[in-house]
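Dear support,

We are seeing what looks like truncated structure output for some complexes. This example has two components. We would appreciate it if you could run it in full and send us the complete token output so we can diff it against ours.
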Amino acid sequence: MESRGVSLAIRVGTGLVLAFLYVPLLIVVIYSFNNSVSQTWPITSFTTRYYSFAWHDSDVRTALATSLTVALFATLLAFFLGSLAAFAVHRFRFFGRNTVSFVLVLPIALPGILTGIALNTAFNNYAIPFGVLTIILGHTTFCIVVVYNNVLARLRRTGGSQVEASMDLGADGWQTFRYITWPAIRTAVIAGMLLAFALSFDEIVVTNFTSGTELTIPKFIYNNLRQPRNRPVVNVVAVVVLLVMIIPVYIAQQLAGAEAGTAAGRRAALRSETEPGL
Amino acid sequence: MVSDEADRPLGTRTRVSAFLFRHPRLRLGGLLGVPGLWFLVIYLGALVVMYATAFWHLDAFTGLVVKQFSLSNFKRIVDVPVYRTVILRTAGIAAAVALTDIVLGLPVAYYAARLAPARRRTAVLIAIVLPLWANYLVRIFAWKLILSPGGLLEWLFAKAGIHVTIGSSLVAVWIVFCYLWLPYVILPIYAALERVPGSLLEASSDLGARGWRTFRRVVFPLIVPGIVAGSIFAFSLTLGDYIVVQLVGKSAFIGNVIYDSVGIANDIPFAAAFALVPLAIMSIYLFVAWRLGAFEAL
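Here is the complete output from our reference environment:
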């Protein structure tokens, strides 16, 4: 139906919009090699020395250690809780089953600021001091749904006949899980965990409310953007964060294909996947 | 590979798993108990407490929360003109962002859904989604670099003989929001476009409609649900954000009022009450979308 002119216009429009999406990211990468402390364009001389500055910066190191610790524990907890919930919803019919997906997706579906304040109020009420522990508790809460969605989608696809066959052949519950269920869901679990890791490593909106004085990598960037101090180091950290995010997401996508968040977008995937078939 | 273990009669493990098999409620409890408890204690409880807090208020003298039912927070939101301005500003920019993203998103979605060959389509879709996984702060930071005085955009404009600096302003906030939420808007539009049957387009062209007319009379009505879905993302994400304005803006949005009520004023009851504002706006928005029939085709 498209005439040649319209088709050309659409192609040009697509190119422009993709440029709009990627040029800013490219700019960040270019600025990380900027020799000057002033952040003006055009850049006159280039250097890699701020990469070494960033590596030796004590704030960056503390923040990185905290971010990795938090992401690791949040991912592991999300793995346990998300998988358990996925099995419960897949295997059983029970009162309130339809609301499980809805409730699990709430921390991501609601504006982050609401989740942040709610958690902040709760930790205050329970008198839990803000620190690494509270960041982990917060991150786990919104990471669960990522693992849950991935595992549930895979369980639905694999069906129950193999499990039944295994039980009929005399395997007990543990053997069936070990030899039948686990191999079928393994890649989905790993993909979910990688996405959860990326999500946790990236988070700032909720973290601001649950971290107290503890520094994470996004918080380091946030603080330094609000009060510009060592901009060159921030540039470098930004580039590293871009890489750290993209690698796990890429692997997750390879493992889980269309089930992983990448194929359908982060929030979009979380919403669309939870709706059909429940 | 399981036979050697299955041959042993009734080990403890077998008995346990048989017991569990006969008691499905127990299995369900074992599976759902911990995640359920986690959400109940850490999250749902917190949400309920937060919304209950909206009806308490802060004692002006002691700075402590008075746990007594009152509507004073809501009265304050309605009475103080600044809050009205903030709400209108936020809703206005949110609508502008949604509209801009729809305009930007349509050609890309159309290209991916109807023009691109299969392999290119996958590549374009990945290219749209990947920026969502780039760090949210880094994406804002990129625009701070571009828009700030002496930055790339000012330089480009100067080359063209125009002297403007966007810096930190409402325009900057608008651009950054458009940038951040664009993928969320493209995807549902793409999904809707992909579902438009080719036969309808052929029929329309057989009946003599040219490209534009076919788009307006056939394609557009069919993809309205996708467009509305996309706009819901852009709209609600803008309503809940506080960081973009802190980094590239000057005048407060709803999110900033909430954030400052917690962080600066330590007035959690008022923050909780104000947090109901975006929820109310979204409810109205969803209701209108529903009345317009936007959900029927979903």
